[in-house]
């Protein structure tokens, strides 16, 4: 009944179905992995306010030379609550433009914090609105505190897709806080990630931390697995349909052949 499955056409269809199902299962597993990663990040975000801060040096690799940032940390370091002590360097302050808070366009102000060992870490001190309400008018930002300060904040990985840098109103102007590109413009070794302050100074708005959309990845994983099952079921359904369609045809062919044989047999009745 199912011998047709051994024909080249059906063997090719089986191979394609299995290959497609394997790929779909792989994609589902990859989405599951992303779901687990993003869920872990969300857990760190939620726990950051209630967990004690750890020294920055225990999370990020120390940079060795000016112009070259320290090693970029993995995603497991993102949003870790850290503490670091040093002196702000307003001469190399950075403004990241085009940032919105509650529908208002403004800037994030990033100031290098010089540590006692000569290295530096970029500190995102918070958000301020642009002076004229557009994306390029220089903001009026409170000056960085003088003297030694201790900063508590969360590790933020470098933003991707580095943007051009320019000097504007006494600051380095950019669209993205891309640590490697910024580090190349600074005269001291810079850590490979920056720190987002937990409690901004007066005049700044805290930059909100968006949770990762982990459930979307979980939904995609289930979808890919369902597609794999559906592909196998579709192949089985088509094979069964083919088999059931062949059986009546074969029965009809056998009956027709029998009728032909009967018609060919001479009648036993003799003429009068």
Automatic annotation (TrEMBL):
It comes from the Bacteria. Pfam families: SURF1. It is a multi-pass membrane protein. GO terms for cellular component: plasma membrane. InterPro entries: Surf1/Shy1, Surf1/Surf4. The keyword Protein transport does not apply. The chain crosses the membrane at residues 12-30. Keywords: Cell membrane, Membrane, Transmembrane, Transmembrane helix. It is found in: Cell membrane; Membrane. Belongs to the SURF1 family. This is SURF1-like protein.
């Amino acid at each position: 009944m199912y011998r047709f499955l051994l024909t080249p056409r059906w063997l090719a269809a089986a191979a394609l179905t299995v290959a497609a199902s394997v790929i779909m299962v792989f994609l589902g597993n990859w989405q599951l992995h992303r779901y687990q990663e993003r869920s872990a990040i969300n857990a760190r975000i939620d726990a950051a306010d209630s967990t004690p801060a750890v020294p920055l040096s225990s999370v990020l690799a120390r940079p060795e030379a000016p112009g070259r940032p320290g090693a970029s940390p993995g995603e497991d370091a993102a949003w870790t609550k850290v503490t670091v002590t040093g002196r702000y360097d307003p001469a190399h302050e950075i403004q990241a433009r085009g940032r919105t808070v509650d529908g208002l366009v403004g800037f994030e102000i990033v100031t290098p914090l010089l540590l006692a060992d000569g290295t530096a870490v970029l500190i995102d001190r918070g958000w301020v609105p642009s002076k004229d309400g557009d994306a390029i008018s220089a903001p009026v930002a409170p000056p960085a505190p003088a003297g030694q300060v201790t900063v508590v904040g969360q590790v933020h990985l470098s933003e991707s897709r580095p943007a051009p840098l320019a000097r504007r109103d006494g600051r380095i102007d950019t669209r993205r806080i891309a640590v490697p590109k910024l580090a190349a413009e600074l005269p001291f070794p810079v850590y490979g990630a920056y720190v987002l302050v937990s409690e901004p100074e007066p005049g700044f708005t805290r930059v909100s931390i968006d949770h990762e959309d982990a459930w979307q990845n979980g939904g995609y994983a289930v979808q890919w697995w369902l597609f794999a099952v559906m592909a196998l079921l579709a192949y089985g359904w088509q094979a069964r349909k083919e088999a059931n369609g062949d059986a009546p045809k074969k029965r009809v062919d056998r009956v027709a052949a029998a009728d032909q044989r009967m018609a060919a047999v001479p009648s036993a009745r003799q003429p009068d």
